[in-house]
Each structure stands twice: as structure tokens, then as C-alpha cells.
Design a protein that fits this description.
heterodimer; A: 242 residues; alpha/beta; Rossmann fold; 10 helices; B: mainly alpha; two-stranded antiparallel sheet
């Protein structure tokens, strides 16, 4: 594999005929965590959904050397992209074990991976027969992460995994992402700059539907002026705000 | 007392027919967000070809009756599958066009059936036992009611087992909740669309054969007349909820029967009032997902 697992070139994304991402180009290295940053509403989530094909898109998206921009979502995912959506989106009326069973892709999920997920999220083992809709937000996030870790992926798209979670659960999520990133690259949308600082090697900043900065995440977050200008926040203050 | 028992038995029989039609409508809407106006055509064709099969064997024999049920279900499933593959799938995500095509198919199929079988109803015969009655608490209940209720209960059980115990059932349940997320797990949800249409069509075709025995005739307009009430049942039960469809089928049919008997034949009017009431108080239906 080359240095990049994902190449996004002139991606434009529309929702219900309204263009929400104008022209986004960036690459994701084949190792580590790359953070997608930007103020609220700039198109970070839409960019991830555009890569997946959940929203209508134009432009080129290449995964491990293969063009995937003409593929429907389920085939993009089958090529090896795992998606953890904003707000978890677990199936509330399915049990935890049904949520996980549904996520297992044929030939991708193995016993070793199931055991790894069980070790990582022991709480889910105990709650196997519980309806996912009755879990706490943190437990639902565990289900959402477990769904992608069950499969052998080339890339994970993770959208605001710490949003609305208690500090203790945020630590668990950080640990899970750190472990996962040892074997699979992650493209991470995250508003919590402390989480970005601890996890991300690279950063892509989006503003007004375009990429306005790419580079090292630590360099960006250590430059107060740049952080203030691009994200509208002091790096030490924690969260990107509108 | 005997009148109440008779109204209950007749209402439950009618409710069973409503359920056989509404179960498919509800599953199809829940998963695909398509209001399938062609569902009545599946029912009518199932009834017409089912009875034709029964006549070939001997309509008054049990083998003939069983054959008509099997043929009705198979015809319903086959036509529904073709409808999904040829007409609905090319219009994926274009809900208004999908609804319009089902309306067109519904109108065209009635005209086609009238051209083939004529506009007059054909009075049907079945095994003698179905036309006889059984005494319950002083009421003489027609035996066909027991068969219809039993078959609908078996269909409900079969669908529940399928939804709970199979991977496709799991995909359908998940798809009713969040179709986009199912595709984001790498699952081609369109395959389950075809399956849901086939299951709904089979239930409707089966319902068509049983409806012909309930009313005593089969005609090209049979499906259309039942479809209206099935839609009301589906909305009252909650679009996408199988349990809601089952509960609402029984409630609507019983209300209709009792209003017809005790309120001067106002059954149809009363259930439209009930529909309006449910929509005002609980727009998502009795067991539907809140918007």
C-alpha cells in the first residue's frame, strides 16, 4: 500500500439538492489518526457521508488505490470502510448482540476479532440481550465502535465519538480508538480539541465547505493564532464552537 | 348474548382478512416508505387464480381448497416480486413516483381482470364444512371464520418468527428503524425490499382466497374494497409496525361490525372517525414510531 489509504479529490456533497460541501481535497495516511476539524456546520459530517456515498457527491474518492466514488454505500463499506456515525445510530429495537451480528461482514469478522471486542467492551457482553435503545449514551457508543472493530477494515470514519459523553466514558473511547489505530487508520471528526491533541497525528481543517489547512495536528493546536483563526477557539479552551 | 358472540366471531374473521392485507402494507411502508396501492391487485389475482386452481381439482373438496390457498399465496408473492423488481426498484428513493406507479398498476390491473374475468362477481363454492355453522354460546358461527382466523394467526406467527430468528428478518427490523445505517454496515438493503414485497404479496394473495370464502364471491374489485380498510388499519396501527397492524385489524373490524349492527349500518363511517381521532391524538398510530 502507498502512503495514503484515502485520497479525496475535489469532493462536493449535496443534501436534498443543497450543496453542503463545495470542494474538498485531502489525503489520509495509511497509519494513525487524522482529525477533521472545523466550526459547527462547515461540512465535516457531510464530508464523511459523501465519502461513504450516503449523501450525493461528485469528485474522486480513492480507497487503497481503487476508485469508490461511483459505488453505492454498501459496496464502499464492503471494500473496507467502517463507519461510526455521529449520535451512534444503534438500532434501538434490536438487542446488543443483534446490533453486532448485523455488522459482521462475511469473511471479514473473525473469532479473534469478536474476542478482542469482548475484551475491549466487557459491559456489552453482560448486556448482550438488552435492547440497544435502553443503553446509556456511553454504552451505545461502545456498540457503535464495536460494530466497526468486528471487521477487517482499511479505514475507519469516526464522527464525534465523544459527543455528550461523561469524562470517564470519553477516556474509554479514547483508549478504544488508540488501540484500533494501531491496526487501522482512522479519519476522526472531533470537536473536543483535547481528544484531538491526544489522538491525532494529522489534521484537516474545513471552513466554508473547503479545506483551508492540512498538516500536523500538534503543530496546529500549538499555534494559538492559527487555531483561533481557523477554529474560532483558543487551543487550550477545549471545544470548537460555532 | 348470541348476537354479541356472532358479531365477535364475524369481526375477528374480518379483522383476520384486514391483517393479511395490512401486514404487507405495513412492512413495505416501514422498510421502503412506499404506500403500495397495487397491494389490492395482488389480493385479487391471488383470489381469482386460487379459485381457478380449486375448480380444476374440485372446488368443494379439501384438496381443492388447500390448492387454492397455495396458488393464491404463490401468485401474490410472484406478482409482488415482479412489481418490486420491474417497477419499484428503478424508482429507488423517488417515493412520489413509486406511489404513482402503484396507483397506475392498481387501476390497470382492475381493468385487465375485468377484461379477462368480466365485471360481475363469481359466486364460489368450497368444502361443505366451511358453509356450515358451529354453535358457540347460542350463536351459530360460520365455520369459515375459524379457518380465516386460524390462517391469519399462523401467518402472524410465521412473520414474527422470520423477523426474530433469521438474518434477513434482522435486516428488515433494522431497516425499518434506520435504512441508511443498514447500508452503512455494508448490507445491500434492496434485497430485503424484494423479500418484503414477496412476503406481503403472499399474505395478500392468501387473504384474497380467504376473502372470497368470507364474502362468498370473487370479483376484480375485491382487492380494492379491502385495500381501503387495510390502509386505515395500517395508519391506525402505526406505519411499519406489524404488531400495530395486528391489533388495529382486530379493533377496526370489531368496531365496524358492532357499529353496523347497533348504530344503523354506520360501521364504515365510525372507523373513518376512529382514524381521524387516532391521527389527531396520536399521529404515529397506536404502535408506530414517533416522528
Amino acid at each position: 500500500m502507498s502512503g495514503q489509504v484515502l485520497v479525496v479529490d475535489h469532493l462536493a456533497v449535496s443534501v436534498a439538492g443543497q450543496q453542503v460541501v463545495e470542494d474538498v481535497s485531502f489525503t489520509v495516511p495509511a497509519t494513525g489518526i487524522t482529525a477533521v476539524l472545523g466550526r459547527n456546520g462547515v461540512g465535516k459530517t457531510s464530508t464523511l457521508k459523501g465519502v461513504l456515498g450516503l449523501y450525493q457527491r461528485t469528485g474522486e474518492v480513492t480507497l487503497a488505490g481503487e476508485r469508490i466514488d461511483a459505488l453505492p454505500t454498501h459496496k464502499v463499506v464492503q471494500r473496507g470502510i467502517g463507519y461510526v456515525p455521529e449520535d451512534r445510530e444503534v438500532f434501538a429495537r434490536l438487542t446488543v448482540s443483534e446490533n453486532l451480528a448485523l455488522a459482521e461482514r462475511q469473511g471479514s469478522a473473525t473469532r479473534e476479532r469478536r474476542e478482542m471486542v469482548d475484551r475491549l467492551f466487557p459491559d456489552l457482553v453482560q448486556r448482550r440481550d438488552q435492547m440497544a435503545g435502553t443503553l446509556s449514551g456511553g454504552q451505545q457508543q461502545m456498540v457503535a465502535l464495536a460494530r466497526v472493530l468486528l471487521n477487517d477494515n482499511l479505514l475507519l470514519l469516526v464522527d464525534e465519538p465523544t459527543k455528550g459523553l461523561a469524562p470517564l466514558i470519553v477516556e474509554q473511547v479514547i483508549e478504544a480508538l488508540r488501540l484500533a489505530s494501531a491496526t487501522v487508520p482512522i479519519l476522526l471528526v472531533e470537536q473536543n480539541l483535547d481528544v484531538v491533541r491526544r489522538l491525532a497525528g494529522d489534521a484537516v481543517v474545513i471552513a466554508g465547505g473547503r479545506v483551508v489547512h492540512t498538516g500536523s495536528a500538534s503543530d496546529l493546536l500549538s499555534d494559538e493564532l492559527l487555531t483561533q483563526r481557523l477554529l474560532g477557539v483558543h487551543a487550550e479552551s477545549g471545544e470548537v464552537r460555532p | 348474548m348470541s348476537t354479541i358472540v356472532l358479531l365477535l366471531a364475524t369481526g375477528l374473521g374480518l379483522g383476520a382478512l384486514y391483517f393479511l392485507v395490512a401486514s404487507g402494507l405495513s412492512l413495505i411502508y416501514g422498510l421502503m416508505h412506499v404506500l403500495n396501492f397495487a397491494h389490492g391487485a395482488f389480493l385479487t389475482l391471488g383470489a381469482l387464480l386460487g379459485y381457478a386452481a380449486a375448480l380444476r381439482l374440485d372446488a368443494t373438496s379439501w384438496p381443492g381448497f388447500i390448492a387454492s390457498i397455495l396458488v393464491g399465496a404463490l401468485v401474490g408473492a410472484g406478482v409482488a416480486t415482479l412489481t418490486e423488481l420491474l417497477l419499484i426498484r428503478p424508482l429507488y428513493e423517488r417515493h412520489i413516483e413509486q406511489v404513482l406507479v402503484t396507483v397506475g398498476l392498481s387501476l390497470a390491473s382492475v381493468a385487465l381482470f375485468e377484461g379477462i374475468w368480466g365485471t360481475d362477481p363469481t359466486f364460489i363454492r368450497g368444502p361443505a364444512w366451511l358453509d356450515e355453522t358451529t354453535g358457540i354460546l347460542g350463536a351459530r358461527v360460520p365455520n369459515d371464520r375459524f379457518v380465516i382466523i386460524g390462517v391469519a394467526a399462523l401467518v402472524l406467527l410465521a412473520i414474527v418468527v422470520f423477523l426474530r430468528r433469521t438474518r434477513y428478518g434482522m435486516i428488515i427490523r433494522a431497516g425499518v428503524e434506520n435504512r441508511a445505517m443498514v447500508t452503512a454496515l455494508g448490507i445491500d438493503v434492496r434485497r430485503s425490499f424484494t423479500l418484503v414485497f414477496a412476503i406481503g404479496g403472499a399474505a395478500a394473495g392468501l387473504g384474497g382466497v380467504l376473502a372470497a370464502h368470507y364474502f362468498g364471491y370473487v370479483s376484480p374489485s375485491l382487492g380494492g374494497s379491502l385495500l381501503i380498510f387495510a390502509f386505515i388499519v395500517t395508519v391506525i396501527g402505526g406505519l411499519g409496525s406489524l404488531t400495530g397492524a395486528a391489533v388495529a385489524s382486530v379493533l377496526v373490524a370489531l368496531l365496524q361490525q358492532f357499529a353496523n349492527y347497533y348504530a344503523g349500518g354506520t360501521g364504515d363511517f365510525v372507523i373513518v372517525l376512529a382514524l381521524a381521532g387516532v391521527l389527531l391524538v396520536r399521529p404515529s398510530g397506536l404502535m408506530g414510531k414517533a416522528a
